[in-house]
Amino acid sequence: MVIVTEKSQRSSARVVALAGGIGAARFLRGLVRIVEGTNLTVVANTGDDLRLHGLHISPDLDTITYTLGGGVDPAQGWGRADERFTVAAELAERYEQPARFTLGDCEIRTIDHMPGEGNSTRPTLRKLDPLPENSVSNTCLRPR
Fold first, then answer.
1. Nearest CA to 103 among 111, 95, 94, 114?
2. Residue 123: which CATH number?
3. Is 93 within the bounds of a domain?
4. Is 136 a member of any domain?
5. Those residues with Cβ within 8 angstroms of residue 12's Cβ, 6 or more apart along the chain or in another chain
6. How many domains would you assign to the chain?
7. Structure confidence at residue 92 as a pLDDT band (50, 70, 90)
């Protein structure tokens, strides 16, 4: 339990949060307002991970990263805001890929350039630092 005595005061308690999906990402957005980033470890779901077009994709880790970084699509609650799907459309047309899971152009680029993730078969520890002014800059996101 985290107790905050004043709205402006952030807790120095160490917190571990289990997370997966849109709801967890929204919960964490509130939690980082009261817990210092260096004291927060998120153990995130990787049960929905998959490989698509040669990329290791962690939907829950990505949703948490985009939400805490301020870049999530607000209408969907997942994916990146203002995303385009040029690459996905071409891959679907050329290789008849199912439309059940679609990656946007920016997501493909982001996943491909994440250390240890793009072409890896296992997720890695991801230290969140999506925006310099973001309060989550030292939060630790651990895939499980």
1. 111
2. 1.10.8.240
3. yes
4. yes
5. 36, 39
6. 1
7. confident
Can you state the angle between helices 105-113 and 86-95, rounded to 10 degrees? Answer: 90
Distance (Å, whole) CA 134 – CA 143: 21
Q: Is the pLDDT of residue 7 over 60?
A: no
* Residue 13: per-residue pLDDT: 80
65 touches 57 (CB < 8 A): no
**Among residues 112, 126, 42, 28, which one has the least CA distance to residue 70?**
28
In this prediction, residues 38-57 reach a mean pLDDT of: 85
pLDDT of residue 111: 73
With the C-alpha atoms ordered 43, 38, 22, 133, is the resulting torsion angle positive or negative? negative
In a domain, 5, yes or no: no
- Domain extent, residue 77, equals 15-143
Q: How far apart are CA 61 and CA 69, in angstroms?
A: 12
- Cα separation values, 68 from 25, 72, 99, Å: 7, 8, 27
Structural domain includes residue 59: yes
Q: Which two tokens stand for residue 103?
A: 């990656």
Q: How high is the pLDDT of residue 143?
A: 54
DSSP H or E stretch at residue 55: strand 55-57
